[in-house]
TrEMBL record:
This is Acyl-CoA thioesterase. InterPro entries: ACOT8-like_C, Acyl-CoA_hotdog, HotDog_dom_sf, Sec_Metab_Biosynth-Assoc, TesB_ACOT8-like_N. Residues 21-102 form the Acyl-CoA thioesterase-like N-terminal HotDog domain. Residues 124-260 form the Acyl-CoA thioesterase-like C-terminal domain. It holds the Pfam family 4HBT_3C. It comes from Congregibacter litoralis KT71. Gene3D superfamilies: Acyl-CoA thioesterase, double hotdog domain.
Length: 264
């Protein structure tokens, strides 16, 4: 199933409906970036603006495969941006609360200064591909839905030898030449292994509390180059800052995530 199909929205009635598809999960719980993309598609439809510019999600409950509803509400419709809020909910409970701004990315122009560059990476064929282990649950099932290849220096946690630096770099694309649109970039900000896996600290999945993604441009076809880093792990929480660069070397997305850390 393609990402576009797996995040499709039915907007014929309000609230809108969608389906959390099988296989986009981490140990049974739908990936946070995947849920964010479903909600953002509904919000963009309600805004009549094609793309997310900035979307923030607060995660309330895990999402499981099955039907969901999204009730986008226009906060303000401006000349260039429309701001929308919404709740993505299962039949039992709300899953995430969202607030975002939507626009036509192709209409944004202005001065440019970028004081950063894409992460240095070996070619994709020299980077180990992360594939799911459905029996163990790690790597998770959603790794079968994307082509994700980790920088060799950042992949040793898979064999129990973390680098000691809370840093994860890698290549990303969809299989079968599916294009990566701005909604796919929302997924990209949250589908890499947590940086804490390389931090020489207790290893477990880190539930997302809040995720904000900024979409800066429509990506060119080809591999995305991604970098996620953490500076502060304290008080039972951690932040994770993300950069996503397209095949032309242009920054196309940024993210910041607040997540719970494993108990010692």
């Amino acid at each position: 199933m393609s990402f576009e199909t797996a995040t499709a929205i039915n907007s014929e009635q309000h609230p809108y409906t969608a389906e959390i598809a099988e296989g986009w999960d981490v140990v049974g719980n739908a990936n946070g970036g995947y849920l964010l993309a479903i909600g953002a598609r509904a919000m963009a439809t309600a805004a009549a603006r094609p793309y997310p510019i900035s979307v923030t999600a607060h995660y309330l409950s895990p999402g499981r495969p099955g039907p969901v509803t999204i009730d986008p509400q226009i906060v303000k419709a401006g000349r260039r941006l429309t701001t929308v809020r919404g709740t993505l909910a299962s039949t039992e409970k709300p899953l995430i609360e969202l607030l975002g701004s939507f626009a036509d990315l192709e209409g944004f122009e202005g001065p440019a200064r970028v004081d950063a560059s894409p992460p240095d990476m070996p070619p994709p064929d020299e980077c180990p591909r992360t594939v799911p282990d459905l029996e163990l649950g790690f790597p998770p099932a959603m790794m079968g839905r994307v082509d994700l290849r980790l920088h060799p220096d950042d992949a040793n946690f898979l064999s129990g030898k973390p680098s000691g630096d809370p840093l994860i770099r890698g290549w990303l694309r969809f299989p079968d030449d599916e294009p990566m649109d701005p909604f796919g970039l929302l997924l990209a900000t949250d589908c890499f292994p947590p940086t804490i896996f390389n931090a020489n600290l207790p290893v477990a999945w880190t539930p997302t509390v809040e995720l904000t993604a900024h979409i800066r441009a429509i990506p060119e076809p080809g591999w995305l180059r991604c970098r996620f880093s953490t500076r502060f792990i304290s008080g039972g929480m951690m932040e994770e800052d993300g950069e996503v660069w397209d095949s032309s070397g242009r920054l196309v997305a940024q993210s910041r995530q607040l997540a719970l850390t494993p108990k010692a």
